[in-house]
Amino acid sequence: MEVRKALESGAELVGSAEGFERISSMVTQMIGVGEQTGAMDAMCKRSRTFTRTKWDAAVKDLLRPMNR
């Protein structure tokens, strides 16, 4: 909601998203590149893929048997 309020008041997305623990710095950087280049759609897709890959790896690590 805070990001939305900032956007509605004219702030850039990257500036509004920085500092939130739930948004990784890599995703924030990708959003910034998307804003600067006008390629937000592509950067959103890339950040989704990055985040999904990161979460999939974390879940896989959690499910791996401890005694290997």
According to DSSP, the number of beta strands is 0
Task: Provide the number of structural domains.
Answer: 1
CA gyration radius, whole angstroms: 15 Å
Query: What characterizes the major β-sheet?
Result: none
Shape: elongated
Distance between the termini: 44 Å
Low-confidence stretches: none
Structural class from helices and strands?
mainly alpha
Brief rundown of the structure:
With 68 residues, this protein is mostly helical. The chain has helices at 2-8, 13-17, 25-37, 40-63.
Describe the structure.
The protein is an all-alpha fold. The chain has helices at about 1-10, 15, 25-35, 40-65. Helix 3 (about 25-35) packs antiparallel against helix 4. About 10% of the residues are buried. The model has no long low-confidence stretch (mean pLDDT about 85).
Structural key phrases:
68 residues; elongated
Topology (elements, then pairings):
Blueprint: H1 2-8, H2 13-17, H3 25-37, H4 40-63
Helix pairs in contact: 3-4
